[in-house]
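Reference record:
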Amino acid sequence: MPRPITLINTDSADKEYPPNGGFFLFQEVCILKIAVTGTHGTGKTSLAEALSNHTGLPLITEQARIVAAEMDLTDCNRLLNDQELAKAFQWRVLERQIAEQRKRRSSGMC
């Protein structure tokens, strides 16, 4: 998504740089992030996909389902009954979500 560019004419500013007048070029950073939250089965993913399509913003899906599959967690009761497992799951989800956001940022997508 292209970012707007602002040109500032230094002839009218009280600045010495760049010498002999000219222009400074600034890139305005416009970061827009939309988070969709709610309980399971309410259409968060559908809404997020529609927002992504409408706005052109990248979609970073939630990573909990992926991490749950990797950890072979098919039943929430295991997490409810095992605090250490629940803690490990939460940390892995957080780390994965951050990693996905960093991948997008480094590729210039957000």
Observations:
- Residues 11 and 21 are 5 Å apart (CA to CA).
- The helical segments are 44-55, 64-70, 76-81, 83-106.
